[in-house]
Amino acid sequence: MDEEERPSIDELRPDVPFLPNGDVGAGDQFGEPLKPWHLATTPRGISAVACIAIFLWVLSGMIVVVPAARLAEDIFCRRHYGRIDIDPIDEELCKAEEIQSSMAWTFGLSMAFSTIVGLVVTIPYGVLADRARKPVYLLAATGQLANVAWSLLVLRLWRTLPVELILLGPVFELIGGGLTMAIVVLYAIISDVTTPENRAITYFFSSLAANAAVFLGPPLASKMIEVWSPWVPMSSSIAATALAGGIVLMVPETAHSLKSPQGDGNWFGADERGWQAAIISRLTRVFYNSDLRSVLKKRSVVLLLLVFMLTAPLPMGMGSMFLQYYSKRFGKSIEDAGYMLAIRGGLTIIVVGILLPVLSQCISSSSYIKIPAFRRDLVLAQASAAFSGIGYFLLGGPDFVFLISGIVVLSLSTGIGPLGRSLISSLVEPSQTSQVFTIVSIVEGIGSLPTGPFLAWMFSSGMRLGRFWFGLPFFFLGGLGFLALLVLFFVDPKPGTTGLRAVDEDDRI
């Protein structure tokens, strides 16, 4: 595969491992007759709706992080002190080690359960979504809405229901696959209606939409709490989730009932062979394909899969764990911690929207620096892994200056995920990319699975040990970043061939 034919940092394909990427022109027939409520029927219009939906999904998740942490802290605090009245309780009393430890374990276990559900349902619902995108998307939205509503109900009725019942929330994601599946379907819809030439820029705008929501969500929630109460952003999350689910009704069905062009009996024929047979066929293609297994024996591919496993837990450090750490260590309110998350969100927009594209383009077009695309992406991935390690170690430092420095440095590590996908996709044939991304998703799920409880244990241990060890969870995440960097140093910068052409030193992008 020639250098110019494979995706790079400038032209990344998203992780859509279970859904085919058909190229659909503006004049192609949709998978359903047009209805009066189909307001977006052009590729650009449908892509815009998908980007708005991605913004709303991420916003619904980010706007709930701060109020959920504040409400959980208040509930555990009242239970700890035996306070069941409605009078306000001093937030400083809620920073006791036992209270914060209970919170950390609850959120950590919730993340683990959500990961388990994702690993179980993504392939089956991916098979269904191949036949029709919108029904699966609406199911996923329903499951996610039920998850958020259940959490809200448990937090509201804490005097009657044990707050630990919030752990049952991810069970509702069995309906449609929840947020993860909804995002996957949205990327598939974008892929359906865009050409390869326009797809990269559409994914770029979808990434900016997601990062804009990351930037706006926490400070908006913090402001709502200060002006009104935590229930306002919690209710706003339900509204954003419902809006994100319903907005897909504005576009027609984009999936086409096509047979596999290769005629290899894959899951395109699910409606004729039965869903169970289609799912088994998909798993067989992923894990028992002889050509794919030969590719997976390549050292660089195995090393990159290890990098995905090591880096999958890294985003968990900038969620509820950061809110608790900042609030406990520096004696600040959880609302203040929400504003701190906005700093990283804003810097991430600058990195993703400006710095990485400009840096990549400068390296590619420079007449003085002639670096093949694979080596360029490898260097950028190594830099991102190094920034992850440095950033998290700074974040766990002893004072506020270290914390701010860590947030700034961490914003430079944003590209590790897409860069890794760019690298691994260059080592396989285009027909094998979907299967490899399937394995990447599974590996990331395995890497994320124990992280939530493990971070909770380290946070509790750090509080007990005190002083330097307060930042123990972030030292662990920083160590994962440095391990990923070490592994990336062993990835061959001149990938060999397995049915592929070796990368030439003088190749230009």
Automatic annotation (TrEMBL):
GO terms for molecular function: transmembrane transporter activity. One of its GO terms (cellular component) is membrane. Keywords: Membrane, Transmembrane, Transmembrane helix. InterPro entries: MFS (IPR011701), MFS_trans_sf (IPR036259). Gene3D superfamilies: MFS general substrate transporter like domains. It is found in: Membrane. It comes from the Eukaryota. The chain crosses the membrane at residues 45-66, 105-129, 136-159, 165-189, 201-220, 232-251, 301-326, 338-358, 378-395, 401-424, 436-456, 468-491. It is a multi-pass membrane protein. This is Major facilitator superfamily (MFS) profile domain-containing protein.
